[in-house]
């Protein structure tokens, strides 16, 4: 039985590698503690650069009650050569840091020769040295060889009977080939010394691909991590669950916060479905089902307010109400509520022209607020006397505020009490816009995965795979998430190149923001007819698009002419159709979209994205001339 050491706990422990963070080691440890982790995995580079300060680092770690869970030696190790000189040289040094577990990575594993006396003797020798110093050694075996079988190494460990040598299980290494976590049931419980969690964008890679794959935080990819944790927990694993990866992508400044959200959310999912399987976990309220968009609020200067008002009128929105004490107008059509907050001064800037508030209808507003708070979501500043809504809220994308509205909070009554009805407002009737179909949020690329984690750790939402969309000046990464029934749909777009259309939207802004809003109609052709009558400024689609469309889908000439005349983009998936009309860019790259989904179409017209981006870029270039 493994001795009772730091990493074998009755209480569930969370940990994260210091390799995820920039800065000096003390700052890294302080940040890891601040975000809620119980321990940290010391990366080899941090270990090497702090050897002269080991005792001070140890004292600091003890003072804030955040001890290292392990030292990860990232450099490659070859079992066949069985050279433990590097490990032995580190044993006395790691004790100064308060570390009692070393992880070494076997990147070159082949079939181990269990009958080799040379290999057995070296393992026994290092095991004796480890035992004398009360240190353990865990092999993290990466399956780059086609002959890889974890069972081979386990058989070898059984034969040599070295109780201080075991294995580290890395989720990506175990699941990369698409097989099920149940294969891990062959492992002797006492030999699982350490578990690392990370994710991959897709599974079923070739094993040889793992060297160049970028790893993600738990939940950001598609690996079956829930089952992975369940299998290992049933094997009575009591050590820390550590976020640690390889081939790391560029990370945002919020990586530790995101990491804590992702791992705590994941462990809670396991705990809820299998009570008692994980000991003493911080319990979260259940994820909340998002049921629709209640309202969108924009903050604009006077010049932009005029443009917004003009285009909303051409879509036959009605300026139904005006706030009694503030410069806020409520525009309505169907179940769509758009609020325009007008700034007092007349200074035009990207800071003033922004999306500022989002209302989401949820099943339980208290649960989502409490869950988000426990997961470290930033709380907005104290409410000011100018705020008209007093529902539970958190800080969202780009500094906006997300309000949670459930059945106990009557939004219509609030709007009636806070806003005066505009009885003299002219209105020609609705044109079939029923509800908000989706909202597209554009952010810098390194922020995209961070906001993905924010949404999927708090809400019951499904995600698609990341796709790259071609822009005339580069690529934009896009990922969609939605509620199970599609009441809420969000597009997350990551852009680093400011020359792209999405990148230009970010230029000069503080972080992310809503770049476009799509409205749903049941009849795109009837709606389009009304738009023509009201002089709606729609985006002109190039003729070459329809030529390619005809060839790709063998469309009827009459149907093709009908959509081309109205600048409607079209997509079809099996028998499911999708129609799109775009407005011209309004300001700073923001625009509106009108869509119709026929039958079970679930996408967003990805094949049309490059055409739309080029048309928008051409429009902006023409406007500058």
Description:
The structure is a single chain. This protein is an alpha/beta fold. The protein contains 18 helices and 25 strands. Strands 17, 18, 19, 20, 21, 22, 23, 24 and 25 form a nine-stranded mixed β-sheet that branches. Strands 1-2-3-4-5-6-7-8 form an eight-stranded parallel β-barrel, surrounded by six helices. An eight-stranded mixed β-sheet has the order 14-15-13-9-12-11-10-16, sandwiched between helices. The longest helix is centred in the middle third of the chain and has 19 residues, at 255-273. It is elongated and about 90 Å long. Residues 1-9, 346-351 and 498-511 have low confidence and may be disordered.
Beta strand %: 25-35%
Runs in which pLDDT lies below 50 for 5 or more consecutive residues are: 1-9, 346-351, 498-511
Roughly what percent helix?
A: 25-40%
Number of strands: 25
How does the helix and strand content classify structurally? alpha/beta
Mean pLDDT: 84
Largest sheet: 9 strands, mixed
Distance between the termini: 77 Å
Shape descriptor reads elongated
Radius of gyration (CA) equals 28 Å
Number of helices: 18
């Amino acid at each position: 039985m493994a001795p009772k050491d730091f990493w074998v706990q009755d209480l569930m422990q969370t940990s994260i590698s210091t390799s995820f963070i920039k800065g000096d080691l003390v700052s890294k440890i302080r940040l890891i503690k601040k975000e809620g982790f119980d321990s940290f995995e010391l990366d080899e580079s941090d270990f090497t650069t702090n050897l002269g300060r080991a005792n001070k680092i140890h004292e600091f770690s003890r003072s804030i009650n955040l001890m290292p869970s392990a030292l990860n030696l990232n450099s490659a190790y070859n079992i066949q050569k069985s050279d433990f000189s590097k490990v032995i040289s580190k044993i006395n040094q790691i004790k100064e840091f308060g570390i009692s577990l070393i992880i070494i990575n076997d990147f070159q594993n082949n079939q181990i020769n269990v009958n080799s006396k040379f290999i057995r003797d070296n393992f026994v020798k290092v095991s004796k040295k480890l035992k004398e110093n009360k240190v353990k050694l865990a092999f993290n075996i990466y399956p780059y060889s086609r002959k890889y079988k974890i069972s081979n190494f386990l058989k070898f460990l059984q034969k040599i009977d070295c109780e201080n040598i075991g294995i580290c299980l890395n989720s990506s290494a175990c699941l990369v080939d698409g097989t099920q976590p149940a294969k891990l049931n062959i492992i002797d419980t006492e030999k699982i010394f350490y578990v690392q969690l990370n994710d991959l964008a897709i599974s079923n890679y070739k094993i040889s691909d793992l060297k160049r794959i970028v790893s993600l935080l738990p939940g950001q990819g598609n690996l079956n991590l829930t089952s992975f944790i369940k299998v290992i927990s049933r094997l009575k694993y009591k050590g820390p669950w550590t976020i640690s990866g390889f081939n790391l992508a560029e990370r945002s400044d919020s990586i530790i916060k995101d990491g804590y959200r992702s791992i705590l959310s994941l462990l809670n999912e396991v705990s809820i479905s299998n009570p008692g399987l994980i000991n003493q976990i911080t319990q979260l309220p259940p994820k909340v089902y998002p049921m629709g968009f209640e309202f969108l609020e924009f903050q604009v200067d006077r010049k932009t307010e005029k443009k917004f008002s003009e285009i909303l009128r051409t879509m036959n929105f009605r300026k139904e109400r005006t706030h009694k004490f503030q410069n806020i107008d409520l525009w309505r059509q169907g179940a769509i509520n758009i609020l325009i907050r007008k700034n007092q001064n007349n200074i035009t800037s990207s800071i003033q022209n922004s999306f500022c508030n989002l209302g989401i209808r949820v099943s339980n507003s208290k649960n989502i607020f409490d869950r988000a708070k426990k997961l470290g979501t930033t709380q907005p500043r104290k409410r000011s006397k100018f705020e008209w809504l007093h529902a539970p809220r958190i800080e969202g994308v780009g500094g906006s505020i997300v309000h949670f509205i459930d059945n106990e909070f009557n939004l219509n009554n609030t709007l009636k009490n806070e806003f005066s009805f505009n009885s003299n407002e002219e209105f020609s009737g609705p044109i079939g816009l029923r509800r908000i179909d989706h909202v597209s949020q554009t952010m810098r690329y390194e922020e995209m995965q961070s906001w993905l984690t924010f949404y999927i750790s708090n809400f019951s939402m499904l995600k698609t795979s990341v796709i790259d969309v071609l822009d005339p000046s580069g690529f934009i990464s896009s990922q969609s998430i939605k509620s199970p029934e599609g009441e809420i749909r969000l597009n997350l777009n990551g852009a680093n190149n400011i020359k792209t259309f999405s990148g230009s939207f970010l230029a000069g802004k503080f972080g992310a923001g809503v770049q476009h809003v799509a409205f749903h109609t049941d009849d795109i052709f009837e709606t389009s007819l009304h738009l023509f009558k009201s002089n709606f400024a729609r985006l002109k689609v190039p003729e070459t698009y329809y030529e390619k469309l005809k060839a790709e889908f063998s469309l009827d000439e009459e149907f093709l002419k009908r959509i081309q005349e109205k600048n409607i983009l079209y997509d079809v998936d099996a028998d499911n159709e999708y129609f799109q009309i775009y407005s011209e860019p309004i300001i700073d790259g923001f625009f509106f979209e009108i869509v119709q989904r026929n039958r079970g179409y679930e996408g967003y017209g990805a094949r049309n994205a490059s055409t739309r981006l080029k048309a928008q870029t051409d429009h902006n270039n023409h406007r500058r001339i």
